[in-house]
Amino acid sequence: MYQLNAEEFNTELFLREYWQKKPLVIRQGFKNFQDPISADEIAGLACEEEVESRLVYKNGEQWQAEFGPFQSYEHLGDKNWSLVVQALDNWSEDAAKMIEPFRFLPHWRLDDLMVSFATPGGGVGPHIDWYDVFICQGSGKRNWRVGDKGQHREYAAHPALLHVDAFDAIIDVELMPGDILYIPPGFPHDGITLETSLSFSVGFRTHSAVSLLSGFADHLIDNEQGGQLITDPERQSTQHCGAISSDDFAKIKQQLTSLTSDDEMLRDFIGAFYTQAKHELDLQADDELSAHHDIKLAMAEHNLMRLGGARAFYFPETVINGVCYIDGKKVTFSPAIADIVKLMCDQVEITPAQLTPWMASDELITFLAEQLAAGYWYFS
Ligand code: SIN
Ligand code: CO
């Protein structure tokens, strides 16, 4: 289990002074840090079709990026390259545990856990991200420079690499195992490896209004909603048929805002939208645990685990009525099990002690049977 070092990191202070405001180096944010996964395992994952990975290196002065799956790394030598694997939390239960210390932030803000393996001189180049990231240094050493927010020219150093012009550093540090660098959106940064290194990045994102609106339009189409037309039986004659009058503009605006002001409709969209997995899930449906008797036995003996990368959220206003959202879908259940469903959304792991009070609930067993069959939860 990973735990933030309370002597070096105070959540309230961090949120007040740094979150979304300025970068921060947290020396020994993790005391006695151990890599949750080895470089060899990471290299192996990047050979898999379903895993999103990329190699970044320089050919002379020319930056190069290649996308996985990869067959071999031998041609790369032992310097100046890095291998990045996205959504490591979907593929490694041990690595996913690195997200847990950051649960003081809501899960809907989480992007993924990314890992980069880099040889000396390796890095992805100077760039700006539009998400918040906690870069946790694993084994090895890496130098990080972070510049101030401001006007920075970005350019494509390669079609897949958006870089930023040279910047003055406000932070210039060597990160050692267990150190953490927090960078908010918009601050240019560049990490160059000094000693073969693993860096684990816990990223937090939001969506732009345009991507929300585009998702909302898809949601309305899929659910055959929002098809109402404007009606105007009270219309008066106009002197200016080329004009969209203020009254008509208000009517059209109302047609749109009535959709976004319908909280029930909007919650269904937001719940589905934010629980959609960005990366492929390692779904393994458990067909064997369908008998209620077997599920009860498992509840008494094993931890119930949510699949790495799977997203399950609720709104306080909906869960009491038996509605939550799992992997892009609205899911209904008996309101009698709302408390344990909330726990399943709040916690990745639920212990037998937390489950056994629910053993007599047929509603929960039915709900669990569905989720186990779909592969979103499993017993450890
Ligand atoms: C890396 O770990 O190589 C890149 C992480 C980042 O800059 O966001
Ligand atoms: Co970055």
How would you explain this protein's 3D organization?
The protein is of the alpha+beta class and 380 residues long. It folds into three domains: 11-204, Cupin (Jelly Rolls, Sandwich), CATH 2.60.120.650; 208-230 and 246-261, no CATH class; 292-379, 50S ribosomal protein L16 arginine hydroxylase, Chain A, Domain 2 (Malonyl-Coenzyme A Acyl Carrier Protein, domain 2), CATH 3.40.366.30. Helices cover 26% and strands 25% of the residues. It contains eleven helices and 19 strands. It has helices at residues 11-17, 39-45, 93-96, 209-222, 246-260, 263-275, 292-301, 316-319, 338-346, 352-355, 362-374; strands at residues 24-26, 53-59, 62-67, 81-85, 110-118, 132-137, 141-147, 154-158, 161-164, 169-175, 180-183, 189-195, 197-204, 304-306, 312-313, 323-326, 329-332, 349-350, 377-379. An eight-stranded antiparallel sheet has the order 1-11-6-13-5-4-2-3, covered by helices on one side. Strand 8 (154-158) and strand 9 form a beta hairpin. Helix 4 packs across helix 6 (263-275). The radius of gyration is 24 Å and the shape is globular. The protein starts with 10 loop residues before the first helix and ends with a strand. The mean pLDDT is 96. Succinic acid (SIN) is lined by residues 82, 84, 116, 123-124, 129, 133, 135, 189, 191, 199, 201.
